[in-house]
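User: Let's play a game. I give you a shape written as tokens, and you guess the letters that built it. Ready? Here's round one.
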């Protein structure tokens, strides 16, 4: 039972890290499009998403 839970948690971590990579790539592209005087709301929202997802991954890695 514990092995099944660990495998499921590992799959969730893989999926979440793939999403993190996708979001980080999108964030970089968005930041590259901005100028020194502008910072779009989209960039801030994406950074917040990354932060929340990274915390979730960290918590899952710690285990139950």
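Assistant: Ready! My guess for every position:
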């Amino acid at each position: 039972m514990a092995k099944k839970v660990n495998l499921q948690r590992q799959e969730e971590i893989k999926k979440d890290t793939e999403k993190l990579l996708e979001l980080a790539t999108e964030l970089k592209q968005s930041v590259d499009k901005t100028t020194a005087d502008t910072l779009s709301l989209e960039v801030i929202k994406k950074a917040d998403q990354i932060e929340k997802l990274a915390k979730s991954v960290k918590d899952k890695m710690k285990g139950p």
